[in-house]
Amino acid sequence: MLPYVGTDGGKISVESEQVKVCIKCKSCFVFYAGSLYDVTDDIDLDAWKDSEAILQEATGPGGEC
């Protein structure tokens, strides 16, 4: 992933952070150092869909955004 600008103006790297994907709107976010970053443009959602199918088998369909 590309570096993001932190709240203090410095660049941060979120490449090793957990990405949270909204199962309703498919937006992707990283929570890092007290801030939320939208990383949707940097995530391969096609690759993620395989994981989503497995998760839905285990937990059921998703909820609200």
Which secondary structure elements does this structure contain, and how are they paired or packed?
Elements (H helix, E strand, L loop, with lengths): L3 E2 L5 E2 L7 E2 L6 E5 L2 E4 L6 H15 L6
Antiparallel strand pairs: 1-2, 3-4, 4-5
Structural key phrases:
23% strand, single chain, 5 strands, three-stranded antiparallel β-sheet, 65 residues, alpha+beta, 23% helix, two-stranded antiparallel ribbon
Question: What level of helicity do the residues show?
Answer: 10-25%
Instruction: Give the distance, in angstroms, between the N- and C-terminal Cα atoms.
Output: 24 Å
Low-confidence stretches: none
Mean pLDDT: 75
What structural category arises from helix and sheet content? alpha+beta
Q: What is the helix tally?
A: 1
Gross geometry: elongated
Strand content: 15-25%
Number of strands: 5
Order of helices and strands: EEEEEH
Largest sheet: 3 strands, antiparallel
Report the C-alpha radius of gyration, rounded.
Answer: 13 Å
- For the largest sheet, list the strands in their spatial order: 3-4-5
* Count of domains: 1
Structure, explained:
With 65 residues, this protein is an alpha+beta fold. The protein has one domain (4-58). The chain has one helix at residues 45-59; strands at residues 4-5, 11-12, 20-21, 28-32, 35-38. The strands form two sheets. A three-stranded antiparallel β-sheet has the order 3-4-5, with no helix packed on it. It is elongated. The chain starts with a strand and ends in a 6-residue tail after the last helix. The model has no long low-confidence stretch (mean pLDDT 75).
